[in-house]
Write a structure and sequence with these properties.
Radius of gyration: 20 Å
Order of helices and strands: HEEEEHHHEEHEEEE
Number of helices: 5
Number of domains: 2
Strand order of the largest sheet: 6-5-10-9-8-7
CATH class of the largest domain: Alpha Beta
Distance between the termini: 30 Å
Number of strands: 10
Largest sheet: 6 strands, mixed
Structural class: alpha+beta
Strand content: over 45%
Shape: elongated
Helix content: 25-40%
């Protein structure tokens, strides 16, 4: 995940097309075209993977992937640099839009692999834990109306975003999210609640 996170998390869509397959025993050779859509534009690279499987458990035991990294970096390097150079406000706006769409994959997309998210009574460390948390958000917000307030810059690497849930819930809930952004990714988020919880 750490190897692929730099492109997978920022991708709008990922599709790996198998071009050809050859197998012998428990080993398969798969020629692929790995396709990533970033900011609405497709970037692809040819790959060859050698997969070893355990037929009894139907699990992958090993993967050896081959790709021309020089060619790949020349194609996608400038796009990833643009993502890394985004302002804290732009990163927080993208996250806000994902929450408004109730898209848990997009909600987690801009977090660093070692990010921390703190909420009252909860502490999530790592992209994995944060992604699991965001999986629960759509059902927790179902039938409720979430309204975002103003966004405020706090220094050069932080922004604060206020929000309020006022419908579809017994009592109003409001709070603020403070994001620390490092190299275009959310490194640390602290959620404070003014009233209630959802």
């Amino acid at each position: 995940m750490a190897l692929l996170a730099s492109i997978v998390c920022w991708s709008d869509k990922v599709r790996w097309d198998v071009v050809s397959v050859a197998t012998q025993g428990n080993v398969g050779w798969l020629e692929r075209l790995d396709r990533f859509w970033l900011a609405g534009e497709e970037h692809s690279v040819a790959c060859n993977g050698i997969f070893t499987i355990d037929p009894e458990t139907q699990t992958v035991l090993s993967v050896r992937d081959y790709v021309d990294l020089g060619e790949w970096r020349s194609r996608v390097g400038s796009v990833l640099a643009d993502f890394s150079d985004r302002s804290p406000a732009a990163v927080a706006q993208r996250h806000r839009a994902a929450v408004e769409r109730l898209d848990p994959v997009a909600m987690a997309a801009d977090y660093a692999i070692n990010a921390v998210l703190e909420r009252p009574g909860a502490h999530y460390e790592s992209w994995y834990a944060i992604a699991d948390y965001f999986d629960s958000v759509p059902s927790r917000l179902a039938g409720r109306e979430l309204a975002f307030g103003s966004m405020e810059a706090i220094g050069s690497d932080r922004v604060r975003l206020s929000w309020r849930i006022s419908k579809g819930i017994d009592a109003a809930v409001s709070g603020e999210d403070t994001f620390q952004i490092v190299a275009g990714r959310i490194a640390h988020q602290v959620t404070t609640l003014s009233e209630g919880d959802f």
